[in-house]
Here is the input.
Amino acid sequence: MPADNHTHDHDSELSEMQLRVRALETILTEKGYVDPAALDQIVENVETRIGPHIGARVVARAWVDPDFKRRLLADATEAVNSVAEFDPVGAHLIAVENTPQTHNVVVCTLCSCYPWPVLGLPPVWYKSAPYRSRTVIDPKGVLADFGVSLPPDTDIRIWDSTAETRFLVVPMRPAGTEGWNEDALAALVTRDSMVGTGLPKSPEENKAEAAG
Amino acid sequence: MTNSIHDMGGTHGFGPVVPEPNEPAFHEDWEKRVYALQRAMGATGLWTIDGGRASLENLPPLAYLDASYYKRWFLGLEHRVVAHGLVGEDEIAAGRMLRPGIRLNRKLTRDDAKAMSFSNYDRSAPGPARFKAGDAVRTRNIHPATHTRLPRYARGKLGAVEAVRGCHVFPDTAAIGAGENPQWLYTVVFTGRELWGEEADPGIKVSIDAFEPYLSPA
Here is the structure.
């Protein structure tokens, strides 16, 4: 459900929206402005091709390959596009690294800017008024909503996506993963850990989830 | 519009953030079609990404807050196709075409969609960058009646340039059909106390990406 506090009847809104959207698509198709097959492909792209699995691979690669990490932090677009197995990403991707001193959080207070080529479509909460309003003034409160608490002396840096630059957080590699390969590490990298509203899974959490 | 409801940073009262476990890409089928229509019509090149944003910001505040995310996109798109003369109000009301479409320069094909090309907002610089990393700057206290990407909470504030991000299309002019007018872009970082006062947590910093016309030397 949309997170912008609704009070009206959802069933009637949905049926009304179905009708209105269908009518607009029909008009735009009849007039020759859009091709329904292209629309299907656009939906398929975001449902099956792009998503946080891409960002997780990028982060895991940075964890195991210091040269890739250096290039990622210098120019994330160049670094990601240099790896043939990654889908290309657009310009202006910026990777920001969490350290024991500083935790990074990404927001778009003005709309919904999000690094979708590496994370897919933003979740509803990212686009919601509570997240957009509070993150820049009360980041610790927002992190608490996600169940994240950081050591008290950790500085928090908020990146408000006000231009066409897009930010990807490179979280800290979890303890107890020495010697893990890239695939195993990628399984620990959550979407929220790459936005800054979460931390990567620990080996124990990952094991418990796999068993559960 | 600039000082409208979309500019939410620092507003109180919207309540907690409520993450949804295992959230799907879309919650309703119509949202998929709105998303795809928005992308496909964007590819016609008739309006800029900033013009698209401006049409959402021009929604009345109560309508903006009341609409779900994709409903907001739908309302903006419906407004834009009418405003650009692509579709008549009578056709929207009738729910079907009443007269043939006009000829467009570009129509997105399935192959185009498959290739997932990305827009690039880098432009060649009209001149040297005025600021460099480490410079102290103050954001201007501007309140244009048209689109801007300088959020209200960061106007008239003292910050430091952290990085120069190249020269980009300037949203404030691109949104209103006044041209790309490329401008240097900077990551400018502020302390939480500069933005929110003495009571703010000293361990917090916030950055925006600010176009050169938003900045004065400090």
User: Anything to note?
Assistant: Chain A is about 50% helix and 10% strand. Chain A touches chain B through 89 residues (CB under 8 Å). The longest helix of chain A spans residues 10-30. Chain A has two domains: 10-48, 51-211.
